[in-house]
Amino acid sequence: IITINGINPKLKKCNVRVFNAGAQLVMSSDKVLTGNELEINIGDCPAGIYLLKVNFPDGSYQNFKFIRKKL
To answer: Is the pLDDT of residue 23 over 90?
Structure first.
């Protein structure tokens, strides 16, 4: 699970998309926000490098890179 803090609490929902290093979409989900925190379950993603895009209804967005390691 990835947790993103500092989300504007006025934003009530968002769309989350996860892309692998080959720019293939591997996950897409609409989320309802509670408070200023967003949790994303990446348990189904194999080890690798990913780009996480979070789009908000007001047109704003945030991009994150993360590495999923083997357990």
So the answer is: yes
pTM: 0.84
> H-type helices in 1-71, by residue range?
none
C-alpha 38/C-alpha 6 separation (Å) is 9
Q: Count other C-beta atoms under 10 Å from residue 64's C-beta.
A: 13
- Other CB atoms within 10 A of residue 55 CB: 15
How far apart CA 27 and CA 8 sit, in angstroms, is 23
Name the residue with tokens 């989900």: 29
**Cα(63)–Cα(55) distance, rounded to whole angstroms?**
9
